[in-house]
Amino acid sequence: MTSLTALLTGLNTSGLDVALPGIVRHFDASAAQASWMILGYLLAGTVLLLVWGRLADLFGRCRLYVAGVAVFTLASVGCALAPDAWWLVLGRILQGVGASAVIANTTALLADAFPPERLPRALGVNATLISATQAAGPLLGGVLTKLQGWSGIFWTSGAAGLVACGWAVHVLRPDRGSGSSEKFDVAGALLSVLFLGGGALALTESGSRGWTSGPVLLSAAVSVSALLVFPLVQRRQRHPLVDPWLFRDRRRAMALLAAFLTAMSYFSVVLVMSLYLQTVERLDALTAGFQVMLMAVGAMLASPVAGRLATRRPARLLSSVGTATSALGIALLVLALSLGPPAPTGLVGLGLFLTGVGAGLFGVPNTGELMSLVPAHRRGIANGVRSMLQNAGYLISSVLALALVAGHVPSGGPAGGDVRSSVLAAPGGPDALVGQHRTALLVLLCLCLAATASSLLRGGAQRPVPPPDRTTAPSAPHRPAPPRTAPGSSGRTKGTE
What is the pTM assigned to this prediction? Predict the structure, then answer.
């Protein structure tokens, strides 16, 4: 069931890229509208992850998961019936709201349903299906668009979402959350939305407007201000949105940092190589798409293997091998671009495949260990933080890659303009383009090596410290009682003489 909804959310990310030209033609949409059809979904899905994760811990994961599927389903139908472009943008934002509630709870539900020794395999199956969606999403989106028109993806998502919603109601056992008297941190939630939303908006708009434009500066200022105030508010809250306890264990902190850096390092590899193949080597979109699909195939094949190995090998070892494998794959891509153009096809394919294999090897053990180090009533917010960091890494990676490869992409970004024409118009001609793509890959390689270091720095096995009990009023610091002695004794204990 969780895999079905993961497929749905993935299809509406990768599959929509193929349907977007038809949508633009149907609505005669502007570049900004086309861009927000993509960005609205990603932004809404990122800024609310912390909120949904905490609400799930307090009021129950199952009911919030079902509500997320229901909102996603209704929003999909609304997108299919949209009368104009801005209504479709609104529907995409609502889809992102529902998808974020699903994503924030999927891993936590799996952690609740499976014992620790079986959890990695369950995560491996889930990750395999997500990778399969990334690989087949554009192809499936093209088939649906050809058969049913631009609305085919949305009608299919609505129908499948209805099935998933009914299945979830039938299969999931109702839960009441933590059952404690903890309150929801409204101030922390608002600040997190301002921080994440402002930062994401500034990043996405900086490419078309420039960093000195008024909207970008205002968004960045709001984001930075909220970030500075957020920890101060969290310290004063009895039940904070993000409990600082989550970061006090080195394994948890390094697992989260490694997830963020890994997302930043590998997510834009497909974007950079797709642009390179289409702009420098002049391949058509379908040929380039089949070539970069090797990365998703690698992740799809590696994820179940990682799930099996994670039951017998330390997460630190597997995750670090995974990031190192991705680093090797990106290094081969850098070498391939240095030998071209045209870059050796076999070397490009091997580099993409190894990058995907590394991502598959990293994700399952890293997520499994994080969930095993968090008690059940904290898994929602822990997975919310992990998902938020991962999505933020995706967004930063995309913006960074576009800035390095084609900082002058016209308004609307890749979705709203002719990227190939704009990139070919870059100063310096094709030789400069190859250097820009190689520089982008080198930056991603450095990020991947940093992720490897973070994964190694998590240390070996250690007993996690349980979260503090916040259901009662703070008490005075605990002081150990003096050792008991028998009446009439000197008060000395064994070993003190």
Answer: 0.67
